[in-house]
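ZP: hey, is the zinc ion complex queued? I don't see it on the tracker
AM: it wasn't, my bad. submitting now with these inputs:
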Amino acid sequence: MNVESRTIFENDNLFVLRGLDSESVDLIYLDPPFNSNRNYEATIGSEAAGAAFKDTWTLSDVDNAWHGEIADREPTLYQAIHASKLTHGKSMKSYLIMMAVRLLEMKRVLKETGSIYLHCDPTASHYLKMLMDAVFSKDNFRNEIVWHYHMGASPKKDFRKKHDIIFRYSKSDNYHGVSITVPRRMDAKRFNKVDEEGRRYHVNGVGKRFYADVGRTPDDVWTYCDDKKLTQLNSMAKERVGYPTQKPLVLLERIINASSNQGDIILDPFCGCATTCVAAEKLSRQWIGIDLSSKAIELVRMRLEREVGMLGEVIHRTDIPQRSELLPNYRTHKHTLYGKQEGLCNGCGTQFPFRNMTVDHIVPQSHGGTDHGDNLQLLCGACNSTKGTGTQAELIVRLKEQGII
Ligand SMILES: C[S@@+](CC[C@H](N)C(=O)[O-])C[C@H]1O[C@@H](n2cnc3c(N)ncnc32)[C@H](O)[C@@H]1O
Ligand SMILES: [Zn+2]
């Protein structure tokens, strides 16, 4: 890994992720903005006051070249994202493009044995699942964890929304299996036998003994009903720093314990008030956090001092790390045009994969057209040959004659 443990980057995670060495991280947890259509601000007067982040998206928030990069690296991923525009609208498409370029980098930096936990909620979870399947492969989908908490609003006409979704994916088959257990629910009626040593057990259909005091792998529903600390932090919680969307330490401790060993490298690219970093430090893991907000670095220092008595060892960086490998160029005219046109052919208006698009001179070079970006467009193969050496206006007329548009 080309970055030291205990580093917080104050920067856009896309640039930092691009600068991290490939296959260098054991576990990624991310809790990105959810596309919830609201902007978060920390409570005034709290330790996190001044922290704010945006959670509304439009196409103007995404770099046009990202469309081309996604379509170039994972053609089906772009198609899945485009589908979200048809069913949900442009804001979802923009949000998913923002997420997809980053998830592609997260996959690259994850070790072959690594895991990734993506925390989201039903606002976008189904669309994010498609992204994860496309990036990590459906075969590496491990769990959809439902985190059931008790804070939240009480709508008048709907059921109360009391859960988040956490997707767990591995990078390959050779992954770190869940390595935690929780106590079995003690049910005196069920564990109705007692052995020579006084331990309670029950016998299943094939005669196997199950002991009440031996743990089992947790279910994929994690509820505060089993562990009171496993809920959204209320305003009185001791660990609360006032950061909007702060997650409880026990949640991160469970994830880190389940999917990593001591000494492993944990990365949180949307680290907020650095809950993941604090949990990783407590559990003797190495860690790296990234957040746009300058609050993360202040809060992680304060929390580490308060919770693990650690002083002054956190590295604060605002630059971008240097990778030794050569970076591919995803910023050509073609990539940018793909985004400008939102993946659609500029003739027939149909969505096409990146490789099926050709760069065309709007005013042909034979008529003095230049190579400048303003004179370039993407056409599908059919439209390109229909246009031939004609003008754009002629192409449109022909497409209309043929009933294509
Ligand atoms: C939902 S919060 C994370 C909360 C965190 N899990 C905690 O317990 O405090 C999302 C965070 O992502 C950060 N963020 C949003 N876009 C980002 C980007 N492109 N790069 C880095 N951080 C970003 C925001 O500043 C915000 O702190
Ligand atoms: Zn076309």
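AM: back. The mean pLDDT is 92.
ZP: great, adding it to the tracker
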